[in-house]
Design a protein that fits this description.
The protein is built from four helices and three strands, in the order αβααβαβ. With 106 residues, the chain is α+β, with helices and mostly antiparallel strands. Helix 2 crosses helix 3. It binds L-tyrosinamide.
Length: 106
């Protein structure tokens, strides 16, 4: 029998092999939360500046947060998500707005 002839028992072994472990890293949703005080225009500016979202989509997302209480604004690897949250929170605090931005594992 040549080297590359497969026998039935070899095929069974192949079927039982575990998947190669190339797990994707977990992804994180970054969300904005509604509040009663942060100006709508300020939230739109945040979405444009830190998430590269265009004005009309930024307006839609801001209104979704305003009406529903929160919205996902993007999904990122852990370090990027943390950076976004920090940028938003730092900018909001600098302008004395109570806006909250949080991240959550998908
Ligand atoms: N609710 C705010 C207002 O009426 C607007 C707002 C939208 C605040 C989204 C936070 O994440 C937010 N001025």
């Amino acid at each position: 029998m040549s080297d590359n002839d497969s026998r039935p028992e070899d095929e069974a072994d192949v079927l039982l092999q575990t998947k190669p472990k190339t797990k994707r890293p977990p992804m994180y949703k970054v969300m904005l939360l509604n509040d009663d005080y942060t100006p709508m225009e300020f939230v739109i500016t945040i979405l444009e500046r830190f998430f590269q979202i265009g004005h009309s989509q930024a307006t839609e997302i801001m209104l979704t947060v305003h009406k529903k209480g929160l919205a996902v604004v993007g999904v990122f690897h852990h370090e990027i998500a943390e950076t976004k949250v920090t940028q938003v929170m730092t900018f909001a605090r600098k302008h004395q707005h109570p806006l909250q931005c949080v991240m959550e594992k998908e």
